[in-house]
Amino acid sequence: MRRPPAGRVLAALSVLPALAVAGWLLAALPLLAFGVYRPVVAIPLGLAMAGLLCWAGTRGLVSVAEDADGHGPVDTVRATVGQVAAAVAVAAGAGVFNGVMHGEQLAVRRDPSTYAQYAIWLAREGSLPIPARPEAFGGADPSLIFESVGFYAVGDSVVPQFMPGAPMLFALGEWLGGLFLAPVVLGALAVLAVAGLAARLAGGRWAPVAALAFACCMPIIYTSRATFSEIPSMLLLLGGLALVHDALYGHGRRIGAALGGLTLGLAVLVRVDGLRDVLPVLAFAGLLVAMGRRSPGRHGGLGPPLLAGLAAGAGLGLAAGYGLSRPYLTYLSSSMRPLLLICAAVLVLTLAGTVAAPLLARLRPPGWLPAAGATLVALTMAGLAVRPWLVTVRRVPDNVDDRLTATFIEQIQKANGLPIDGTRLYFEHTLHWVAWYVGVPALVLATLAAAVLTHRLLRGRGLPWLLPLAVIGWATLTTLLRPAITPDHPWAARRLVPVVIPGVILLAVWGAERLRERAGEGRWRGWVVPVCALLLVVPPAVTSIGTAFTPVGRGEAAAVAAMCARIPPDASVLIAERVTADRYTQVVRGACGVPAAEVRQVEGDTAPESDVRRLVERVRAAGRTPVVLAAEEGQVAPYGPVTQLIGLVTRQDERSLTEAPDGTWSLRINVWMALP
């Protein structure tokens, strides 16, 4: 049997992960909706659906396509065996390295631990919402609080924050005994996705360079070691772009366009921000439909399946958000409403453009438009670069959440030795954030490449870049203008992960390829690839050194397991202190499997002793064993014999506001228990 060309192997390897993730999500979502997301059902159905999508997405994958300018047949992915092997080796190396250094964030402090607890609940119970079980405390009481950080109280239930896509994936890791290795595997597969897209858009020689530059970026390392949603979202977005590229410029099959749209749309199921990221795909699908009306052919016929797939994926994501994460969407309503209005406007404009396609086809763009477009790209990036010297982005707190954020920023400013001003958001520095992590050479190359590609596209050339550049440009601009995140690093760097960092790297390697072509056949041409490779890989690697070799949260998994083993199985846990309640209410409820509630504080961070004693008696009357938890021995000593459940010293993320992080901070966690 003839061995397939190396480029075809890379083409398949770079889309199979996204297809498998999409298939798993399609099988998992209805199971979760009906409350039967159990391994005995989910694993066979998920594997079957993933296998079906992988087969359909790669069936008949061929390598004949048009080149970037529409001339002649060439390979869709052109790569040698060595180039493919190098890209695979980078992905495998990234997986092994991050697997060894993976984090263990279980105490709910920020999003990774919220996702981890969400996944643990799904893996063990397979249904939503989470029962608060007030009857285990003698019934509802004004002093009982069942919500905690990342988990909303709704009636007698608790609803996790965030969309369910990523937790459904991480739950599979929990079933297989590796909750914290699931993001590591997804991160390694994302490296392959970047390599495959780089090979499609810039050539096979740049696949391992793009893979290595991407794998070395600190935000990629950071989000590949913990249960974040950004890596699975990026995997779907990049895989979807590759599928659409192959459908348009490779085998030209409608099923490929439909699967590409579906995969892109399912990014909404993982991150609600995915709705913003895929907006250009909607306009692009409308363009293909318009092309089909004007001159039916291979490309025009792919518009309807792309649009149908996108609508199906995004529709499932929105439906899941509304049905399973409604309190979260309500919390985001101030930003969701404008986004939905923008989506509606894009849809109306797309429909209008499709209807008016025959008329618009007669128009001839002015000759100055390509140069103007390229200039606008350069000026936009220049404006973002000088933005810190022109504006200072602030937010005056007008609600409880904003005031808490302002207080948090003030604490970080004090630790960083900066002037105290809790209204500052530091969003004017967002382009500088990108430069920290990918390096100035990559950013300059990407900017020049974006300008040149814009010029070429407005002249009707370089069409394979139309959709990728639209997605990268739109998501990058909107993210850098308003990242909507607490601005400490490495935390804020996660906003750059789904599109900005891979987009900059893809543009940079395309720019490097153009430099190689411009070098001609002279002696300097041979130096372009190694020099550009060094310029693209060394700066992000240097930035990452300070944090890459220090795991975060190590020891938390063992500490939580030991805590759960010492809590009586018939206990009802009363948490009498605020920080412990924020961090451990859902840990006790989900990981330990016993009811838990915070006791409301009247003044300070500790609950009144009279309320705790009253609730202890209510628990006894309900036929259960009362347990009281707090952070310090003295806070639980009044209620009975005390035991220290957790006394852990570990590492946590640094919190840097004005420069790239170069280390980690110490973290001490104490939990004490009293058995009244």
UniProtKB/TrEMBL annotation:
Question: Does Transferase count among this protein's keywords?
Answer: yes
Transmembrane stretches in the record are 43-65, 77-97, 175-199, 206-225, 306-324, 339-361, 368-390, 434-453, 465-485, 491-512, 524-542
Q: Which UniProt keywords apply?
A: Cell membrane, Glycosyltransferase, Membrane, Transferase, Transmembrane, Transmembrane helix
As for membrane topology, the entry says:
Multi-pass membrane protein
Say where the protein is mainly found.
Answer: membrane
> What name does UniProt use for this protein?
Glycosyltransferase RgtA/B/C/D-like domain-containing protein
| Compartments where located | Cell membrane
